[in-house]
Amino acid sequence: MKRVYINEKWCLGCRLCEYYCAFAEKRHEYNNMALALKDTLISPRIRVEEYGDITFAVNCRRCEEPLCVKSCITGALTADGIDKDRCVSCCTCILACPFGAVSLVDNVIKRCDLCNGEPLCVKACPNNALVFEDRRCV
Amino acid sequence: MINYIYPEYEIIRNPDKCISCGVCVRQCANEVHENINKTNKVICDDSKCVNCHRCAVLCPTRAIKIVKSGNTYRENANWNCKTIDEIYKQAQSGGVLLSGMGNPENYPVYFDKILLNASQVTNPSIDPLREPMETRVFLGKRPDDIMRESNGKLINNLPPQLPLSMPIMFSAMSYGSISYNAHESLARAAAQLGILYNTGEGGLHEDFSKYGKNTIVQVASGRFGVHVGYLNAGAAVEIKMGQGAKPGIGGHLPGTKIVGDISRTRMIPEGSDAISPAPHHDIYSIEDLRQLVFSLKEATQYKKPVIVKIAAVHNITAIASGIARSGADIIAIDGFRGGTGAAPTRIRDNVGIPIELALASVDKRLRDEGIRRNVSIVVGGSIRSSADIVKAVALGADCVYIGSSALMAMGCHLCRNCHAGRCNWGIATQVPELVKRLNPDIGSKRLVNLLTAWRHEIKEMMGLMGINSIETLKGNRLMLRGVGLNEKELQILGIKHAGE
Ligand code: SF4
Ligand code: SF4
Ligand code: SF4
Predict the structure, then answer these.
(1) For chain A, how big is the Rg over CA atoms in Å?
(2) Which residues does chain B have within 8 Å of residue A17's beta carbon, measured at their own beta carbons?
(3) What's the whole-model pTM score?
(4) What is the mean pLDDT of each run of 10 residues along chain A (138 residues)?
(5) Nearest protein CA to atom 8 of ligand 3, as residue
(6) Per CATH, which fold does B137-497 belong to?
(7) Cys-Cys with B50: which of B172, B285, B415, B459 at CB 3.0–4.6 Å?
(8) How far apart are the first and last CA of chain A?
(9) What ipTM was reported for this prediction?
(10) B43: Cα within 13 Å, side-chain hemisphere
(11) Residue in A10, A14, A37 nearest the CB of B19
């Protein structure tokens, strides 16, 4: 399966991926990034980690056996997505994810959904630090 | 001391579009933009902006544009704003003015005053999409005559040649003046395209020895990084006598840039200034040059062509004639618009002659003297498009060198601040955070794209002239006509005026 991979050698820490991720969530409402994100606090599903000179983005790793799904107490979270009506905001999945890739925004769980197979963060990365590839060993 | 200089550029940020993402803040190495955290607002200090467009290109909402600040002094046809500012700068610093890239001044560009011919009615043009078109060229000395064995079999007396898929090479840019990633982009693109790049005078980084077939190794007056392995690592050796941006003066890479790999590649201690003397201290005549040419040939077993690169100066024809007799295989001539990583502004802007005139007169002189076949001619110094290349070939060039346009393909926005060492595009810098901004996967792809496009255009232009091989175009000045040129200029260029 194709995943978003990060090559930290080329990550500039510009955080464009974060803003494009935030825009991706609102694309169906606004077709313009300025309109979508003006005066808002973003809560992207991809986050740039920074330590000294090292920067790299982290998002859902698409685990083969996702701990988040396993831990979900109501069965709201599946590998494919989240059933918002069933989520009770208990945050167990957030605790379970070893990558910190799940977050709670407005009482609902959020996780990268790969933008229906065309991740906007990858498209927006100016330096090919994010790639969308199938790297499974055959 | 008060700074008299008003910022040259102004950053206009459209408040309706800015989403305060801070990308501009993080991307500008000149620290122009600043995020005011409490107000969620971005402000800037225009005086530090060099107009490199990094922020404008990366701003996700296109909220930024950079404009000339437009602050003017009282109008004066003699003392323009730039001249006045330069006086203020020097009165404040007491130093020589430095600049990067090529001469930006308003001298005539002869390429823009030359037009190409096309076939109509009486001679058919060729459609490059349907018929084969040859853009391949070979650089090197041509044999004087055909030699045969007693049984009539041909003896191969061909001196070493450089095969190129198109008449274009990347000109010399040293590792040190440009970054590791810029070098890797050039090397990879050259290998993919079947052309050559040039190490410049900084030696060859060990990682790039695998691109040897596509490398020209340079020997300059400082002899940095030169050893027998280096000479044999490339496809050809270039002796750099001069550079179009700064003819007659040497180079100076400050000790602060001589770090790590650069010091190792140049074979000089870390932190020591890399000073290339103005002349080669062992060359004071064509005879001396001949000695160096043959020492290099000896060191490379006569297997590699030797290029001699000179800047286009007043008596270029006589110098070129001497070089053509020195044993060199290729002459590279760099016009006065050629780029540089750093040069004194006054020299860059006032020394040398246009490459078009130098090329036309050198080609003619060598033909007149019957020694044109001794050498191939490569020209550089602001080749801006495929049309410039076609015109240069028709004026007599075998091939062109491109430097500035290659850098632009990789992201350079001609802010001409290379000498500051903080190139926001990761090209003319050695700062690791900035160098990583140029991913060679992208850099080499863009270079390959540019030259592939140019090659298509060259074929189209050849086709419309009814020419199917670039060799047939070489020195074919009947394909050129001048517009708005005087008798003398036409005579030097060896072309007719439009309408003639
Ligand atoms: S959210 Fe975390 S645990 Fe769940 S699939 Fe993604 S990376 Fe794995
Ligand atoms: S120096 Fe370049 S990146 Fe910085 S503000 Fe000016 S144009 Fe933008
Ligand atoms: S990059 Fe553009 S949107 Fe982001 S803070 Fe700068 S001006 Fe605003």
Answers:
(1) 15
(2) none
(3) 0.93
(4) 91 95 92 91 93 91 92 92 90 94 90 92 96 81
(5) B18
(6) TIM Barrel (3.20.20)
(7) B415
(8) 12
(9) 0.90
(10) 5
(11) A37
